[in-house]
Amino acid sequence: MAFWEDKTLAQMTTEEWESLCDGCGKCCLNKLIDDETEELYYTNAACQLLDHKAGHCQNYKHRFKFVPSCTKVTVENIESLTWLPDSCAYRRLFMGRDLPSWHPLRTGSKEAMILAGMSVAGKVTCETRVRDIEDHIVLWPMKDAQ
Ligand code: SF4
């Protein structure tokens, strides 16, 4: 049995926990919340530390030094991180779902994740170039797939 099927999130080792991240990069996108409806909107304006072509953080180890507002996903805060996409492995497991067929832990690489349209690579712009964030609202980060 795979560790994510056998263990709770709280029982996982640090290495197992880190390996759950599929590397999609969606959590690195700026999001908006409608004041009236509280609806969440994703934008294609990415964190300035994101490598836009590769779709991953350029300095993951020291990211808090450069972006203090970055959120570390932990077993303690996963319940409150409702802005993570439905496709996110942490949210999926927290919600009692399984990992999707395209997840790197199942396939051994990020290729299937990219083919499933989950990666932000090549689809985003740097937040520092954005004038009106509302012009950058996109729907594709909300996509989920088995
Ligand atoms: S949204 Fe979840 S799975 Fe995707 S990069 Fe962020 S933490 Fe990893």
UniProtKB/TrEMBL annotation:
Pfam family, one: CxxCxxCC
Superkingdom of origin organism: Bacteria
UniProt family annotation: Belongs to the UPF0260 family.
PANTHER family recorded: UPF0260 PROTEIN YCGN
NCBIfam families per the UniProt record, alphabetical: PRK05170.1-4, PRK05170.1-5, PRK05170.2-5
Name this polypeptide is given: UPF0260 protein OS133_10595
Species of provenance: Shewanella fidelis
